[in-house]
Design goal:
This protein is α/β, with parallel strands linked by helices. It has one domain. 32% of the residues lie in helices and 22% in strands. The strands form 2 sheets. It has a 4-stranded mixed sheet with strand order 1-4-3-6, with helices on one face. A hairpin with a 4-residue loop joins strand 3 and strand 4. The protein is globular.
Length: 138
């Protein structure tokens, strides 16, 4: 019975929740900037974390997904970011820092700096933000 309660109280991460958490992080940043733009674009950089231990899930993302895609100046749409940062087995980057890179006339470009280590939702960092693994950087 208590095992069932645990499952009811635990919300494993999925793509939709991952997207909602990114949007919550963006709202947190925008609320301090006095900007009301709703057209968001993104650049992504991956922190290789070469001194950290990586597992096979990390290697898959590094060798297959991030290979030739880790171009920091490439501008991506929201759904592309979500797809790009989601492991096929629904693992997610251990941590992700989000900051404003640039305000344009019709959009805001956010810089996403992501861990290269992918984990289950229970292991993600930045839980204290209430939108893990994202952290707003001002």
């Amino acid at each position: 019975m208590s095992e069932q309660k645990l499952n009811l109280n635990f919300n494993p991460m999925n793509k939709q929740l991952f997207k909602e958490n990114l949007l919550k992080t963006i709202e947190e940043i925008i609320s301090t900037q006095k900007k009301s733009q709703t057209n968001y674009k993104f650049t992504i950089t991956i922190d290789e974390e070469s001194v950290k231990n990586h597992n096979s899930a990390d290697d898959l993302m590094r060798l297959v997904v991030f290979n030739n895609y880790n171009i920091p100046n490439k501008i991506r749409e929201l759904d592309e970011v979500i797809d790009f940062l989601t492991h096929p087995k629904l693992y997610f980057p251990l941590w992700i820092n989000v900051s404003v890179k640039e305000y344009l006339k019709d959009s805001i470009i956010f810089k996403i700096e992501s861990s290269s280590r992918f984990r289950k939702s229970s292991e993600l960092q930045n839980k204290e933000t209430n939108h893990p693994p994202f952290k707003a950087i001002y």
